[in-house]
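pinned: reference chain
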Amino acid sequence: MDAPNLEHIVVEDLTKMPNLQSLFITQAPRLRRVPPLPPLPELRTFIITTSGLVEVPNLSHVHDKTTSYLQAVDLEGNHIARLPPHALRIRADQVSLNYNLIEEVPAFAFKNAQISKLSFRGNAKLKRIDEQAFAGNLLLRQLDLSSTTITSLPTKGLEKLEILRIEKTPTLKYIPSIYEFQNLEKAYLTHHFHCCAFAFPERHDPARHALFETQLSIMAERCGHNRDGQAQSTPASRRRRQLEHTNGLKITSRGGAEGKTNGAWSSISKEESTEDGDDPPPLSISDEYVSDSGSFEDYEQGGFHEPVNDTRRGGAVFAECGNLSLSRRQVECTPQPDALNPCEDVMGWAWLRASVWFVVAAAVVGNLAVLLVLLSNHNELTVPRFLMCHLALADLFTGLYLFMLAVVDLRSYGEFFNYAYDWQYGVGCKIAGFLSVFSGQLSVFTLTIVTLERWFAITYAIYLERRISLASAAKIMIGGWVFSFIMAGLPLVGVSDYSSTSICLPVESEVVGDAIYQGSLFMTNALAFVTIVICYVQIYRSLGGGGESYGGRGAAAAAERKIANKMALLIGTDLLCWAPVAFFGVTALAGVPLVDVSHGKVLIVFFYPLNACANPFLYAILTKQYRRDLLTLIARSGRCNWVIEKYKLATTPPPTAHTHASTPGTMVPLVESSYRRSQSQMTKESNLEEGASALV
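pinned: its C-alpha cells
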C-alpha cells in the first residue's frame, strides 16, 4: 500500500511462495505493467488498484494444471486502455475492471474463460463491445456496464446471465430481446423504455416472440402439457423424457441435478459448442470476498453452479416434463415505467391519435392563411397587422410541434420503445421541444402587446401622436423574440430537459434550477393573462356601460354588446388554453401531480394549442379587414372576379342624398349634422371596432 516508487515486480520470485493466496497492491502510480504471472496454485485474490497499470496482466497460467480458481481479480482505478488476448483466460468468481480507460472490448476477449461476475463500471470511454466479446465464457452470471458509453449490447455468451447492470448509460440505444437472455432475473438499466421492451417482448421483437411461441407449442405437445402450463397426470408426464432437438433449439434446465427449472420458465436456447472438450470439475466457494473499493459489494456470492445435463458435446437433452412451466418469465427491471414515461405510444389512445391531425390542420392552415394575406399586403402594413403577423407565426410553430409528435406517433405505432432513444435523445425531440416553448412564450408575449396596443389606442384616441409607432412595435417584438429564444434555449444547455418524456416538454424538475425555470414559465403566462383581462375590462368600461356614451341608442347598445361578447370570447379562449396546463403544471411542480403524462397528452392536444387554432380565426380570418385584404389579393391575381363583384354588391349601401341624383338636396344638412359629433368620440368608436376585430 502507498508505494510511489514501485515500478517492477519480479514475478518469478513468486514461485518461491507456493502457498501464496493473495497479492494486493494499491496506490503505486509508477507501476505500469506486470509480467505474466507464473503458476500459483493457491492464489485466490489478485488486486492492483489505483495504480498506473496500462494493460491487464496476463493471468492465464496462474492455474494451468490445477482445478483451482481465482476468487477475485480487482484492477479498479488504473489506466488500463486495452485487454490483451487471453490475458483473462482464467477461472474466477469476480473480475473488476472498473474506472479505467478501456475504449473497446475486442472479440473473444474472454474465450475459454470461466468468469461468474464481470464489471466494467465507470469506463467512460468504453463505446464498443464486439459482438463476440463474451463468446466462449460459459459461466457469466452477472455483468456490470454502468457509467459507460456503449450504444449496443451483444448477446453471444450471455445466455446464462442472471443479473445485468447498465445504469447511468444514456447512450445505450437498443436493448436485446428478453429471449436472448434465457436466465435473466434482474436488470438495472438507464431508460424506462428498455424495461418496457422486457415487459412487452411480443412488440419489442415480434419475430423472436413468434419463434418462442412455436417452440413453446412443440414443447407443450411433446411433454403432454396444455397451454395453461398444467401437466397432465399421466405416467408419461412424470417420468424422465428425452426431447429431440427441434430446428437447432433445445431445452435445458438449471438449478439442481434433478432437472427442475428453478423458476417459472424453461430455457430455450440455441445449441452451444465449445473447443474445450470435457467439462471442468464443479467449483465451490467457501470464503467471501469484498473489495476494499466496494466493487463487488452489490454482487451476490456463489457465482459458480455445476452444469446440469450439459450437452455441449452434442446429444439429446433431458428434462423433467412434469416440472416444466410454460408461463412467460418475468424479469425484475428498473427503472420501472412511471408517470412521465409510461409504456405507450406518443399519443397513447387511438382517438387522440386521430384528433391531433385535425388540430394540426387547423393550426397550420389557419395561420398560414393569415400570413399569406397579411404579408401580401405589405404596402399597407400597420401596427396591428405587424403584430398579427408575429402572432400567426408563433401559433404556426405550435402547429409544427404537434405535427412532429403526430408523425413520430404514426411511425412508431405499437412499438415506440424501439424508437424511443432515437426520438427522445435525438435532434428531433430537441427541435420539437424548442418549438413548443418558443411558440408558447412568443404567442403569449404577442397577445399581451396587441392587447396593450388596442387599450392604448382607445385610451388616447384623440392624441394621434401618442399612438405606438411601427418602429416602436418592432423594437418591442425584437425583445419578445429574444426573451422567447432564451426561455426555449435553456433546456438545451442543461436547465431542465426536453428528453425527459416522449412529448418533449421540460416537465422534469430534479434540481432547484429546473423548478425555478418551470415556475418562471407559469408565472409569465399568469402575468400575461392578468394583463389581458385588465386591459379588456378597461376597454369595456370605456364604452360607458349600457351605451350611455352613445346616448342610449339601441343600435349603439347592440354594437357595444357585440364588442363585449367578442372580448369575452377572446378572454375565454386564453383562459381555456392556459389555465388547465398551468394548474396541472403548478401542482406537479409542487410535488403533488394530479395528472400523469398519459392523461396530460389530452391537455397538450386539446387545450395547449387552443390559441394556435382559434387566434387566426378570431383575430383575422373572421374580421372585415381580413376579408378586404383577401379580396385585394384575389383581385391582384386576376382570377375569381365573380367573388369580388358579389362582395361589392353585398356591401354596397342603399341610395342616399350623397349617392343618388334624384334624392332631394334638402337631405344634405341632415347628413352634415351627423358630422357634428365630437371628433374624439368618432375616433374612439373606430378604435373600439378595430380593437374588437383584431383582439389580442
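why pinned: Residues 574 and 611 are 7 Å apart (CA to CA). The domain at 350-621+685-693 is CATH 1.20.1070.10 (Rhopdopsin 7-helix transmembrane proteins).
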